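[step 3/7] inverse_fold.run input=structure_tokens len=435
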């Protein structure tokens, strides 16, 4: 019964992808299927609904944070924060190191904004546009952008994936980030070397376009516009509560919108709800977005996925699969089992949030230490979701920047990080055997 239920759910996910239908329809069908499974197992319908609600309650803080993220990214656009940072960063670009700078700039923007898709739609589009005009391969550009946006998505204090992992594992996000930065040192440096060498040897021609002139028609570019990002960064370093840090950044951005960018006060509510919309078409293509409504889709996905988690936990739907994964962990290492599970759940879930939650459900007992398990989820499910060619985690960013799907092969950070951790786990197991 369990495998039939999961099989129908998987088939609905793939059908949505093939027919280019919103994945939310498949997730809604899944909720019906898993509720029916619970009722078939003998639980009252109301009881199963309570199971689902108990799952949603575990991520209630994330849902509030998502609203703040939507408002924050809209205000950062309107205040000129992102355009100013981009213009300052672009001055560092040289043709021979363009690929490396593409990776680093997307890392920076995704660390600040906490969104892979949003970073791809801003800095990613800018880098792709400049790179193509300079003769850089779209394959390499797509890989560098995908690596960069998920580096920040993995370890930003305002990242929905990092917040989700912290909520699921009941850990402190700042402690998690500290561990993520430590474990990423070698893969990050390797990526820098690889992208630096590829850019140097393959070369490029032409010069970067004058973004200051493009953005200057829409914004007053000033260092004052960077204040909201600086506030968030400083408070994050001081380990201030994430919601409080974002609130402070929101407050800092408001006067800049009003007095530096001369926005009418009456436009602020619409901006917070609908997101930023530029008057200039060229600026709009690179910068439009944000707002509360932009977070509704991911909010719905997380709510439904959380409901699954509550039903799975209480009905034992995944028990048989868990036992198989436990045997795999005993034959290899716990991290190897989490890694493989994340790949399989990513292939089934087709989005990052559900991949994280399914991997959590299936492998939670393998790593008794919550902090260690949070690190394992960040180094597997958060990243491997973007390695699946039909997952929204890879399709949306690459489509946004106009790069081919084969760019996944050049997104080195996405697989160097989990492989580095895998090698470490094998080495640790070998040492324990010798001891």
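[step 3/7] decode complete -> sequence:
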């Amino acid at each position: 019964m369990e495998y039939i239920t999961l099989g129908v759910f998987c088939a609905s996910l793939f059908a949505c992808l093939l027919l280019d239908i919103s994945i939310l329809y498949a997730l809604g069908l899944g909720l019906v299927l898993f509720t029916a499974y619970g009722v078939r197992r003998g639980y009252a319908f109301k009881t199963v609904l309570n199971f689902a609600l108990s799952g949603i309650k575990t991520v209630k803080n994330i849902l509030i944070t998502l609203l703040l993220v939507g408002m924050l990214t809209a205000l950062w656009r309107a205040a000129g924060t992102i355009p100013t940072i981009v213009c300052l960063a672009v001055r560092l670009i040289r043709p021979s190191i363009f690929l490396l700078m593409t990776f680093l700039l997307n890392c920076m923007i995704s660390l600040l904004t906490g969104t892979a898709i949003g970073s791809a739609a801003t800095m990613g589009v800018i880098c792709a546009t400049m790179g193509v005009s300079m003769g850089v391969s779209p394959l390499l550009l797509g890989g560098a952008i995908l690596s960069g946006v998920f580096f920040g998505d993995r370890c930003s204090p305002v990242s929905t994936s990092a917040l989700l992992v912290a909520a699921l594992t009941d850990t402190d996000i700042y402690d998690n980030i500290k561990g993520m930065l430590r474990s990423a040192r070698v893969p990050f440096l390797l990526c820098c070397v690889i992208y630096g060498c590829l850019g140097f040897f393959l070369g490029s021609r032409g010069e970067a376009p004058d973004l200051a002139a493009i953005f200057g028609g829409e914004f007053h570019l000033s260092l004052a516009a960077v204040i909201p990002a600086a506030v968030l960064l400083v408070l994050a370093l001081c380990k201030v509560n994430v919601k409080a840090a974002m609130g402070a950044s929101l407050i800092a951005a408001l006067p800049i919108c009003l007095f530096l960018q001369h926005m009418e006060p009456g436009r602020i509510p619409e901006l917070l709800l609908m997101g930023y919309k530029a008057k200039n078409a060229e600026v709009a293509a690179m910068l439009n977005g944000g707002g509360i409504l932009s977070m509704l889709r991911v909010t719905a996905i997380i709510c439904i996925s959380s409901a699954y988690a509550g039903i799975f936990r209480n009905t034992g739907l995944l028990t048989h699969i868990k036992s198989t994964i436990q045997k795999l962990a005993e034959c290899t290492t716990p991290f190897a089992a989490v890694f493989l599970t994340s790949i399989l759940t990513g292939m089934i879930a087709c989005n990052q949030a559900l991949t994280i939650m399914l991997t959590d459900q299936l492998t939670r007992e393998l790593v008794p230490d919550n902090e260690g398990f949070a690190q394992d989820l960040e180094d597997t499910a958060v990243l491997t979701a973007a390695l699946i060619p039909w997952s929204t985690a890879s399709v949306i960013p690459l489509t946004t920047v106009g790069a081919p799907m084969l760019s996944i092969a050049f997104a080195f950070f996405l697989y160097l990080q989990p492989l580095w951790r895998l090698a470490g786990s094998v080495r640790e197991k070998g040492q324990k055997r010798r001891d």
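[step 4/7] annotate
Residues 60-295 form one domain.
The chain has a mean pLDDT of 85.
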